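Hello again, I could really use a second opinion on something today. I've been puzzling over a protein and I'd love to understand its fold better. I'm sending you its amino acid sequence along with the backbone structure tokens. It would help a lot if you went through both lines with me. I've dropped the whole record in just underneath, so have a look.
***
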Amino acid sequence: KFYNTEEHMTGLFRCISTEVILRCSEYISLEQVFNGDPAMANKRLVSAITACQMWKDLFLKQAESIRRQYKAGKYSRNWDVDTVSLFAQVDAFVQRCRDLQEVCEGQVQFSRRDNVPESEIRSGEPTEFPAFGGAHGPETLKGLQDIEANFQKQVAILASLDYNILDVKKTEFHEDFANFKKNLKDLEVMFKNQCSSAFDEVPNVQQSCDLLESFVSLARREQITISVTQKTGLVFEMFKNEVQELSRMFER
């Protein structure tokens, strides 16, 4: 009888939402996101997203059950709660977690750990660059290293923000993350351009196969993987041309 008003019920459910967000925030490690193990950080982010979604699903399921029983005359009152405003912060927190997942994905794509013992490399972490042969190998390696150095600068900017990134009330994060995401897209383009330039200079099928294998081992993000995979057609075309040239030589 003391909680049978919309105002009281809404306040109670908001307290639960706040507690769910707080527990999830404590579970997430920003240190792992920015400087640690991106695979483990992503697992924790997935768990936080799942917890928020489960709380929301449980509420909506119960609210629907009460609505049906109210219509059937079993309850004298319905739950008249504005679910949009009730879950606004939960939805915002889930989006914040998904934004941080993009940082983890970027870490896997763009953060090498050169000269680190294999025993110290954690799950999902990228290791050293593969070897790039040929006359333009050092140039390709230098270009990729510059891209990753640029990425680390962008991550450092996010990590050094003077507010709690997981606090959904800090709306300035939207602009800060938009800048990070824009720069991440630029780095993707630079990576794909570097890949294309490397294949432009490759002289034969053997080196093109080695180059393809090297870039395949580096590709993690979807657009980069698609771009690298498309180079398979170029390798087959080179192979076909070499076979045709050999056939003409034998015919002569």
User: Anything to note?
Assistant: The CA atoms of residues 188 and 224 lie 7 Å apart.
